[in-house]
Design a protein that fits this description.
Radius of gyration: 22 Å
Structural class: alpha+beta
Strand content: 15-25%
Helix content: 40-55%
Oligomer: single chain
Distance between the termini: 60 Å
Order of helices and strands: EHEEHEH
Shape: elongated
Number of strands: 4
Largest sheet: 2 strands, parallel
C-alpha cells in the first residue's frame, strides 16, 4: 500500500508536474510529502516538510496529514549541473574502457 505521495519535488522543471502529484494525492486521500532531490548545492533546501516530532515510521505516517509542505522549484539552471555530471561520468567510463582495451592489447602482443 502507499502511505503518501510526493507533491513537491523541487527539481521538477515544470510546476505542472508537481500539480499532477498533488491532484493524485487529493483524489486518493493520501497525504503529501516534499523533497529537494538535490544534486548540487544551489538546490539544497528548496523543499521541506514541517512535521510533528516522530521516532518511528508509523508515527511519521500518522503525522503526515497534519504536516506543512513548503518550498518552491529549484532554479532552472541546476539541470545543467546534472547534464555536465552525466557527461563527465560517461567520459570517465569511456576512458576507463579505453585504458582496459589498450592494456589488453599490450598483453596480447607480449604473448
Amino acid at each position: 500500500s502507499v502511505d503518501a505521495i510526493e507533491i513537491l519535488n523541487a527539481r521538477m522543471a515544470l510546476r505542472s508536474h508537481n500539480l499532477r502529484g498533488a491532484e493524485f494525492a487529493a483524489r486518493h486521500k493520501l497525504p503529501g510529502t516534499a523533497g529537494s532531490d538535490a544534486h548540487s548545492r544551489p538546490e539544497y533546501a528548496h523543499a521541506w516538510i514541517e512535521i510533528a516530532p516522530f521516532t518511528t515510521r508509523d508515527e511519521f505516517v500518522a503525522n503526515l496529514p497534519g504536516a506543512t509542505i513548503g518550498g518552491d522549484l529549484s532554479p532552472f539552471f541546476v539541470h545543467f549541473f546534472s547534464t555536465i555530471a552525466k557527461r563527465r561520468k560517461k567520459l570517465a567510463q569511456w576512458q576507463a574502457a579505453r585504458r582496459e582495451r589498450v592494456a589488453q592489447r599490450r598483453l596480447e602482443v607480449r604473448h
